[in-house]
Structures
1.
Amino acid sequence: MSTEDTEKKHIFDNPKNVQRVLYGLFGCLVLLLALEPFVHKHSYFPWEESFGFYAIYGFVACVLLVLAAKYILRPLVKREEDYYD
Amino acid sequence: MIEFIPPAFIYIVGALLVPLLRGRVKSAYMLILPVISFFFLINTQVGTAWEINFLGFDLVPFKVDRLSLIFAYIFHLISLIGIIYTLSIKSDLEYMAGLVYAGSALGVVFAGDLFTFFVFWEMLTVSALWLIWARRTKASQAAGFRYLMVHVFGGLVLLAGIIMYISEQKSISLGFIGLHSPATYFIFIGMGINAAWPLLHTWLPDAYPESTVGGAVFLSAFTTKTAVYALARTFPGTEELIWIGAVMTAFPIFFAVIENNMRRVLSYSLINQVGFMMVGIGIGTQLSINGTAAHAFAHILYKSLLFMSMGAVMFRTGKIKATDLGGLYKSMPWTALFCIIGAASISAFPLTSGFISKSMVIDAAAHGHMSIIWLALVFASAGVFHHSGIKIPFFAFFGHDAGHRVKEAPPSMLIAMGIAAFFCIFLGVYPKFLYSILPYPVDFVPYTASHVLFQLQLLMFSALAFTLLLLSGIYPAEIRAINLDTDLIYRKGGRLFYQVMDKGLNAINRTVERVFIGEFIVGLTAFVKQLPAKLLAKICWPFWKTAFEAPDKKTIHENLLKRARSGFYPISIIGLFTAIYFALLFLL
């Protein structure tokens, strides 16, 4: 089993395929923003009216989430794995 | 002719026969239990209620309405999936615990009175405990005890509330309660502990990752969702729940981002998802209660699917930490695929179950013009994609190849995951199926152009954030470490309390002991002992001094003390006392 596996090339062993996934993602992002003017919005809140609100909110939220978790929460709560033993 | 048997009865009594059977018969028997129970259930009418008079109380052990039915349907489905999943794990203890656990949850869902409700509620805790202990490690044993302590405490709080409430209302029927008196607050908090509210949540990420491979699948489905049902039944429209829920959706994702143990990541995202349900209950409109029920239904499927995929990884590799995993798509492609479907559902991608259920709750918040709550929920939606939707599949199946070359998960596990994955997509593609069994009539269209586009924008730009952070090296590296949680408050708080009590109360105790026992009593005894001798010496010394050539004062004093101890005094002294005595008699 293992010898067969090491010989076999898997899809993401080829860096080109990883590149393709990334380009696919970037293509989707552009497409999603390009479609926005053609969609009829029925908003509940004023900020939903502005262009790309969800895109910006999603991006900023995740960056802040990761930064807060890494630089604020982790230093506070990180302990050695045998902390409780 | 038996017309109907309650599901709880079938499950719990059925569980008792499991150890008596062997091999394929046992497997077939366990699979048929949920099917029989479901068959009875679909033939019951909404509004059925059994009443029994017991010690002057009207017990209603079985009562059906649409809210209980939708929870019962999903509990049947997930118990069947769970049983299929665990068929390759030959453990009677887990089978029995799992069946009793599912049966107890069904008992809670159909309970029409507080007494029945409480009995099944406690059985949930007791049976769940064995799914944790069945792992038979030191860590699981300890986690099980902590689980037990928290839930026994929660059960007692609930019981206190129920007893106070019954004496207030003079009725044990279970229905809308609402927050208005101390009794209702006790019930509210008792249920909240099972729902893993913020600060009361630490039992969940503590115990679930320590449970068995199959146990986590059952655990992820029943305890919290039974609490969701109970709160939806008794506290709909309670505003506090909106805020509790909003906090629940937001805070666990920060912990999930830095967590190394994959099943603990899933535990945190479980709390996050239950938060959406809490918000739905708190808003209390028909749309939001429908949203809560739909989200519970969808959530049980994709969350258990994620726990099943991580369980399969653990079953094959023996590892569950992100630092030990990676590249598994090469040897477990089907598990990877099912995991991705579960991850897409929890992230609420269009055409998956999460999209058609979560959006009901978020829309209900928007209808109520709750801007802060709405922003928190959308933030949590982006965040859950980030830590559950991407992190789980990426670190387990892709990312850095940890070099595990294992077999694909056993067929029973793949079938169970396949069924759950099928429902995740089926509900997303054909939402009418789920909407038709919701408690209230549904007037909600999930698939509008703007809704789909905005959800995709939100998710894809979250994915962009993940990609950029990962490529730039800012994304927090998975490290071998554990993270503290708010159990710190009562863990350290408990120790602080102990020390304050130790230093405070024991200090008083010690001081009193020293002063009273050590000094006062000793002093008093010495004083009483020496009193006669000293008194005599005082009285007699002038006479002795003049009477004859006496030895010095000290010798006489010691002499007297010795006599005082033994009780013998010189005759002259006794004579003196006798004379004084008679003199007093004569004078008085």
2.
Amino acid sequence: MDKLASLLHTSPAIAWMVAKLVIVFAGVFSLAAVWTWVERRGSAMIQDRIGPNRAALFGKIKIIGLAQPLADGIKFFFKEDLVPHDANKGLFWLAPFLALVPALMGFAVIPFGRSFVSGGQEYHLALLDPGNGMGLLYPLAIGGMAVYGVLVAAWSSNNKWSILGGMRSSAAMVSYEIGMSLAVVALFMRAGGYDPSEIITAQGGTLWKVLPNWNIFHQPLGFIVFFTCMFAETNRLPFDFAEGESEIVAGFNTEYGSMKFSLLALSEYCHLMTASALMATLYFGGWQVPFVQDPSVMLSVLSFLVKMLFFAWVFVWIRWTLPRFRYDQLMHLGWKAMLPMSMVNLVFHAWRMSQGH
Amino acid sequence: MVSLNAVLLISFLLFSIGIAGVLIRRNALIILMCVELMLNAANLNFIAFARHNGSVAGQAFALLVMGFAAAEVAVGLALVVALYRRRDTVQVDDINLLKG
Amino acid sequence: MFITFALITLLGALGMLLQKNVVVAGLCMVAAFFGVAGLFVLLANPVAAALQIIVYTGAIMVLVLFVIMMLNSHEEEAGAARPVQRWLSLALIAVLAFAAVKLVLASAGLNALAVKGAEMPQAMTLQKVGTTLFADHLLGFEVAGLVLLAAMIGAVALTKRNL
């Protein structure tokens, strides 16, 4: 790193910042692109089909169809870019970016590996260094911003299905945010801090010598709430009422096509990656490796990636396994099950802490 | 380091825009948003003074103001919805009669 | 940085004031709230910035936009000017500006604060806010809780068709 910095005539800190920016954003973005293929292959596997396996680089190299996202991208680029006649043009253009930017930004605060010291300088494997004061409030805030992409796309299309989809997603957003936040607050209490690094440090070691000291074993109820809310947050089945293709055509992206549609679709997968990373960090120890005291940097990154991709796979798995909820069922679930559960979780852990545990 | 006067100027302008909006616009929803804007200007002052005074009290009060703003918006929106159901309008000029 | 966020805030607010379309006005408002959050970060208060985004853009504005879409009223505001209100608002703003310059900017306390503020290096953390809120301002906190409960009941009572 020092050598690279001196080559580029910058300080190591700046070189490291740029490197991290590239790693995180390019990494999440390409993982999201690959995950569109994983989703199609996964759905095929679950439904006993074959799925896309034909796309080949230069017409020769078929790696079980891994070139499919590339082919999809090229296809989207060459499609006609339609803007509906009665749409609000400026907002119609803006919406895909409003959807994509928060989905990518949410990742910034999550440490994807342990910090290390090299050449007298400490390097943190997260875009925002620990102690930035925002901590885990940041992904919650960015998650709140994410709904605007859907809302703006829905409203600017000037299509009744789109507006229905946008309204559903904004209503669901408000009802799920509270339960999710309260579940996260219980984690803050356990760790005694709200910085992701503190949350991860609190999950080191073992529990009763047989289990890793992860938050899921301490707060299973909170995990259930958070896990469910993440599905609502990412607009994925079983809660994909913003899109709801069997009821409202394609919801908020009915009028979208070509590159703008692909940005909306990619933003969904970026959101999925961020949500999986959040779950791995909050409830499964982040970069901690179970039963390993001080993992090396590479091992910690690997551990984080495995956890994150596992959850990303769970998202796909559940999408093709569970049927969809009805919109009113979802609101009932949000207000009458998730919120009380997460309150019970919070009060129970507050009581336990007051008892000196 | 942001100078205190510059922040005060911004919050003053925000508050002025809020006042002008409440007085000039006739859509009840816009008026509601303008009130939010004025509360936000007050919040900005709280935070700026808390920063320059080194006390946390201003921050705590900004938090309380946010809570009150949420309460206010809930009631305000409920009023607008009830109004719309009864009179089919959200323009404040159309509800100047005491008797519905 | 400061100029950028200040411009976002003011342009957002002005857009809300001048925009005829309610949804676009709401989105301008979101931009204004975002700018204020940025100003909070510059004032070394990331906690307030995060809460500003969570509460205002994440909850309040989403709710307002939801109601706008639900009512979906396309009636335009009457174009006729409201001269009385326009002049009244200008007069009010002028009075405010005069008072601000006269009382606030000229006060000795403000200058003392501006000097003192330069020596405050530490940023706000959630722990500090929580301790202050629950130790020194518990009454305010309880009152806020009560007001929220009252608002909730009021909102339900106002909108529910048959209680």
